[in-house]
C-alpha cells in the first residue's frame, strides 16, 4: 500500500484555488546564540500563534489565510480576559485556560519567583491562520517583529505555537 502523499494532495487543492505550487521551506543551519546574561536577569517576551486575542480586540478569523496581523498584549492583562478563535486545533482547553496556548500567568509567576529578570512591556499574538506567503514572514513580518523586540530590549522570546 502506498502512503498518502498529503502534501501533494494539498498542493493540488490549493493550486485549483489559485495558489502557487507548494515550495518546501529550506532552513539553513545557524549557530546557537547563548543568552548574553543569566536568565534571572533577562527580559522576556512571548508570541503565540494560537488565535488568542484580548477581549478588547477583534477575534481572529478562525479560517484566515495569510493573516499577518500582530497584536500587542499588555503583560498585566488578566488571563481570563482572552478569547481564542482557531479552527485548526481543538480550542476547548484554551478557552477554559488561555495559559495552555498563551502562558501569561505562568510567565508572571516566573518573574515573581526570580526565574526571569522581567517581562517585556509588550507580549504578542499573531501569525495566526494558514500562512502560505512565507516570504512575507521571512522578509517583512518577522524582521518587523524583531525590530519591536529590540525596541523593548528583549533578551528572550518564548514562541508558543498552537
Q: How would you describe this structure to a colleague?
A:
By secondary structure, the protein is an alpha/beta fold. The protein has one domain. It has helices spanning 6-16, 92-96, 104-112, 134-151, and strands at residues 43-48, 52-54, 70-73, 82-84, 118-119, 123-126, 156-160. The strands form two sheets. Strands 1, 3, 5, 6 and 7 form a five-stranded mixed sheet that branches. A two-stranded antiparallel sheet has the order 2-4. The longest helix has 18 residues, at 134-151. The protein is globular and about 55 Å long.
Number of spatially distinct domains: 1
The helix/strand class is alpha/beta
Which residues sit in consecutive blocks of at least 5 with pLDDT less than 50? none
The backbone outline, from C-alpha atoms, is globular
Count of β-strands:
7
Q: How large is the radius of gyration? A: 18 Å
Topology summary:
Blueprint: H1 6-16, E1 43-48, E2 52-54, E3 70-73, E4 82-84, H2 92-96, H3 104-112, E5 118-119, E6 123-126, H4 134-151, E7 156-160
Parallel strand pairs: 1-5, 1-6, 1-7
Antiparallel strand pairs: 2-4, 3-6
Amino acid at each position: 500500500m502506498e502512503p498518502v502523499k498529503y502534501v501533494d494532495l494539498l498542493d493540488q487543492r490549493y493550486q485549483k484555488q489559485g495558489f502557487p505550487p507548494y515550495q518546501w521551506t529550506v532552513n539553513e543551519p545557524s549557530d546557537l546564540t547563548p543568552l548574553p546574561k543569566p536568565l534571572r536577569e533577562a527580559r522576556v517576551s512571548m508570541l503565540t500563534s494560537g488565535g488568542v486575542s484580548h477581549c478588547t480586540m477583534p477575534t481572529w478569523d478562525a479560517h484566515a489565510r495569510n493573516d499577518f496581523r500582530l497584536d500587542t498584549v499588555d503583560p498585566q492583562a488578566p488571563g481570563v480576559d482572552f478569547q481564542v478563535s482557531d479552527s485548526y486545533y481543538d480550542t476547548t482547553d484554551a478557552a477554559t485556560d488561555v495559559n495552555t496556548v498563551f502562558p501569561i500567568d505562568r510567565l508572571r509567576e516566573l518573574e515573581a519567583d526570580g526565574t526571569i529578570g522581567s517581562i517585556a512591556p509588550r507580549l504578542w499574538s499573531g501569525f495566526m491562520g494558514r500562512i502560505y506567503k512565507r516570504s512575507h514572514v521571512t522578509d517583512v513580518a518577522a524582521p518587523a517583529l524583531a525590530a519591536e523586540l529590540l525596541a523593548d530590549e528583549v533578551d528572550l522570546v518564548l514562541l508558543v505555537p498552537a
